[in-house]
Design brief:
By secondary structure, the chain is α/β, with parallel strands linked by helices. It has 6 helices and 10 strands. Strand 2 and strand 3 form a beta hairpin.
Length: 197
Amino acid sequence: MTASELRVGAVILAAGLGSRFGSAPKMLAPYAGRPMVCRAAEAALASRAGPVVAVLGAHAEAVRAALAGLDLTLVENPDPAAGLSASLRLGLAALPPETEAAVVLLGDMPRIEAAHIDALITAYAGATPRPSAVVPVSGGRRGNPVLLDLAHLGADLAALSGDRGAGPILKRRDDLLEVPADPAVIFDVDTPKALGG
């Protein structure tokens, strides 16, 4: 099966409570002229993944306004304090039932491009047997986004809790596929000074 024949959706996690940027959420801070969450959404929409779901939570109205006009399915986490895992479960549940895998992106990693997402899908499509996840690696560090195989991980993902997302599941698996990636996959904006872009 080729990458174009796969049913791979995308989930953007944009429900975060906290911010190191004052009262506004970090994901709405501009990076290279666009709010970070918009850059994540535009990368997903330009990739071979689809449909694309964005999970909102804290600051939902502001994030919804930033994403207006983009071809996304928006779902809201009514309790963002429940953690990243709750948002991930909601996003995956909003994908069509025939979805085979999902690329999960963080809404505040502004250097992720469609090419990063497509590289994960291509690696997944070419793997035999299929891995439970495809994880980008740069400089020996795992990054984001990640592609999750829903058949392998469905029960574990449904049982997730807390604020670590799928990380604990992936640490227990020995059938991950790591793919080399450029440093964009580990770049995180930690301070407003880093927004120079």
